[in-house]
Specification:
six-stranded parallel sheet; about 10% strand
């Protein structure tokens, strides 16, 4: 969790002018007590002054700040308003009033008070800073950044303004700019632990993992009991596949805070990475026991159970995904959600895609199953898949997302269909061949591919780089070098290229690559239709080949997505698939060596 600095108080000091010596001494003593952390004694002195001089401006200002410190924001507001009545030109009074109103969460009134102060004193940097804080509280982040800019122009050495500007930029996902702000704050105050911590969060998001670890280490040096930093350090170590170290970080975080649910969940995830699924489930269960409404804990348990083939419990738990703040919000539709509670015969059922292309390709198979049960099926999918899925058997109508919905009786998101249909590992419907390529495009691509002799082997080696697990599932094309000595025609079905892969392809023209000539999934399907085998990492192309019933060899990381289950080299979802799994995290070499051997054997048997 990010933290915002509250900054200094509103007062700017100053002596009592021409007041009597006794009052001056009392004020000096009150300020000294305030600085010493004795607000009640300081407040008593100010009250003594005000009994004799009710309009004493300095005493009113100081007492307003003390009341806030003593947990009396309402009193602070009234004192600030008294000060403003004594001197309507006192910007300090309006700042103090704004601070007190902000603590009462009266944000619009606080903003008006700061704006009044700035109308009186446009060069008052503290007012711009405080105004930025309340704009942040109001959710007006861009305006908050602009207000902090004014504050920093007037107070370039303000640690609080630099830090809080960084915090807002971090929330706006403007990570590089936020880093500059945190670095500015740390240059002024190197021991600002929250700035080190937030730098770690940002560097993790930017995938600059070693730098993130250094920031967390500095935060923990300054505050060894900072359990949030310890847990997030574990998250970064997990991204680096340093699972044992990550586990130790989560355990340390839990020693610091035994009821820290987030660390229990993260511990469960890394135990699953380590193939210690029973322990992972116990960690998720502990998180649920501590916080029964933790959607992240339920989802972690769901995916773990699904990977073990415990579909009955896994699908039920997976419905918690709609409450997970890191996932998509539940869709608001007019008709009831269907989860199998009533027969669908004679009803119009809207099935809709909720996640990625691969998920849609995998679960659209249920349209035929439900149509056979008597439902009129409407299938809504991503626009890029509409043409391909127009040949799917089962739906009465295919819609692209964004098109107007027709009348329907019930709806179900695609990944809830296994729950609604009571699917177990042994009764998954339509294992393969439920998607077909366009006949005309297949002929066109056959002409392009020609007949070079030997097996045609397709290749897809990387997925969407934005995918959170891309660093584990994708690999450079050069890692497949061992395959290319085989007597086969290699055809890239990869549309998007990373720079290193483009360079490799340029140096290896024997791998046929079509790039922008692959316009859509229809083209990809047409190419796959002409292949003898597709070799791919875990991406949407794997699902497309499996759904078409084409032979597909899938390279899987040590802890792959739940749908590939565990400790098996086949898939109940796709009978034509063969799975090649890592035996150790991040180690592709044995996988590729086995893959190359199997490919040579396939070529020998085909010859």
């Amino acid at each position: 969790m990010s933290k915002r600095s509250k900054g200094a108080g509103a007062g700017r000091g100053g002596d009592a002018g021409d007041a009597a010596g006794r009052v001056s001494r009392a004020l000096r003593k009150a300020r000294s007590l305030h600085r010493a952390g004795r607000p009640a004694e300081a407040a008593a002195l100010c009250q003594d002054i005000l009994q004799g001089m009710p309009d004493h401006l300095e005493a009113l200002h100081l007492l307003a700040a003390l009341a806030l410190q003593l947990g009396q924001p309402g009193v602070s507001v009234r004192l600030a308003e008294r000060a403003a009545a004594v001197d309507p030109r006192s910007e300090r009074a309006f700042i103090a009033r704004g601070i007190a109103l902000q603590s009462l969460t009266s944000y619009p009134e606080a903003l008006a008070s700061y704006d009044h102060a700035l109308a009186l004193a446009p060069e008052f940097g503290e007012a711009w800073y405080r105004r930025g804080n309340v704009l942040h509280d109001l959710g007006r982040r861009e305006d908050a950044v602009a207000s902090y800019d004014h504050a920093l122009a007037l107070m370039p050495d303000s640690v609080e303004a630099a830090y809080n500007r960084g915090l807002v930029l971090q929330e706006l996902q403007r990570h590089e700019e936020a880093l500059v702000c945190y670095d500015r704050a740390l240059a002024l105050r190197p021991d600002l632990v929250d700035a080190h911590y937030n730098r770690g969060l940002i560097l993790h998001e930017l995938r600059r993992y070693d730098e993130a670890l250094a920031s967390y280490a500095r935060a923990l040096d300054l505050r060894p009991d900072m359990f949030e930093a310890m847990s997030n350090r574990g998250n970064t170590l997990r991204r680096l596949n340093r699972y044992e170290e990550a586990l130790r970080s989560f355990e340390r975080a839990l020693r610091l805070k035994p009821d820290y649910v987030e660390a229990m969940i993260n511990r469960g995830l890394v135990l699953q990475d380590l193939d210690r699924c029973d322990e992972a489930l116990r960690s998720f269960s502990a998180a649920i026991a501590s916080r029964p409404d933790s959607a992240a804990a339920h989802c972690g348990a769901a995916l773990c159970r699904l990977s073990l083939g415990d579909f009955a419990a896994g699908w039920r738990e997976y419905e918690w995904r709609w409450r997970n703040p890191q996932a998509k919000a539940a869709r608001e539709l007019t008709e009831p959600l269907w989860l199998g509670q009533v027969p669908v015969a004679g009803r119009t059922l809207l099935l809709w895609a909720e996640q990625g292309f691969g998920d849609t390709l995998q679960f659209c198979r249920y349209a035929k199953f439900l149509a056979a049960a008597g439902a009129t099926v409407i299938l809504e999918v991503q626009p890029a898949l509409k043409s391909l899925l127009s040949r799917l058997e089962g739906p009465a109508r295919i819609l692209a997302q964004g098109e107007a919905l027709p009348d329907y009786d019930l709806h179900c998101p695609l990944l809830s269909l296994p729950l609604a249909c009571g699917t177990g590992p042994a009764d998954i419907p339509a294992g393969g061949g439920y998607l077909v390529a366009d006949a005309g495009k297949t002929r066109d691509w056959q002409a392009v591919l020609g007949d070079a002799g030997g097996l045609r082997v397709g290749l897809a080696w990387s997925g969407d780089p934005r995918h959170p697990n891309d660093h584990n599932r994708s690999l450079p094309l050069s890692r497949l070098q061992a395959l290319f000595g085989a007597q086969a025609t290699f055809i890239s079905v990869q549309k998007e290229l990373r720079a290193e892969d483009a360079d490799y392809l340029a140096a290896h023209p024997e791998i046929r690559h079509f790039g922008d000539r692959i316009a859509d999934f229809d083209d990809t399907a047409a190419i796959i239709a002409g292949l003898d085998l597709l070799i791919t990492v875990d991406t949407s192309v794997a699902h497309l080949a499996g759904a078409m019933g084409k032979p597909v060899w899938i390279l899987l990381s040590h802890n792959p997505d739940w749908r590939w289950l565990r400790e098996r080299d086949d898939s109940p979802w796709y009978p034509s698939a063969r799975l090649f799994r890592q035996s150790a995290p991040g180690d592709w070499s044995p996988v590729i060596e086995r893959l190359a051997g199997c490919l040579r054997e396939l070529i020998r048997s085909a010859g």
